[in-house]
Amino acid sequence: MANVSVYNIEGKEVGTMDLNDAVFGVEVNEHLVHMAVVSQLANKRQGTQKAKTRSEVSGGGRKPWRQKGTGHARQGSTRSPQWTGGGVVFAPTPRDYSFKLNKKEKRAALKSVLTSKVAENKFIVVDEINFDEVKTKNFQNVLNNLEVSKALVVLEDGNTNAEISARNIADVKTAHTNTINVFDVLKYNTVIVTKAAVATIEEVYA
């Protein structure tokens, strides 16, 4: 069972915490992690690109010149792909790029990336992040105290002041326990989690 230090918002160690091996100590499955990232990026694609084929562009109804005797190559339409204003060969059409991962595969991929962050000492547990007011400077001070720049901050539900305070900080993203995903965990150098959020993650994914 992994044991990590718990810090306060001043960056001082105030205790330790045991992490559940069922979530933070699994065998890392790189294939599932890759599939989860590809799936997430594919599902974001709009797939709305469109170009017209020769059957969709206007004009070109009559044969431009007779078949033989002109010295030109034979042509059947001025809307063939080799003509200016002609259609596009194998033109892109709107399509859905998304594909589905099974629920167990998604959970296994998320556990894998959380385990790797713990193993790399890039998983920081904070006892709590509570502010009396919404102030970006307060949140930036917490990051400075923890010596972290690019971070994913996982907060417990209802912590609105901290969530809004982090909104204007570059390279920082906040998430709830039910919105964390493989791509974000990999994208940010460090994952900062409150003790309450860790308990919820263990309860949901263990």
TrEMBL record:
Keywords: Ribonucleoprotein, Ribosomal protein, RNA-binding, rRNA-binding. One of its GO terms (biological process) is translation. Coiled coil: none annotated. The keyword Ribosomal protein applies. Residues 43-87 are annotated as: Disordered. NCBIfam families: rplD_bact. Belongs to the universal ribosomal protein uL4 family. This is Large ribosomal subunit protein uL4. The gene is rplD.
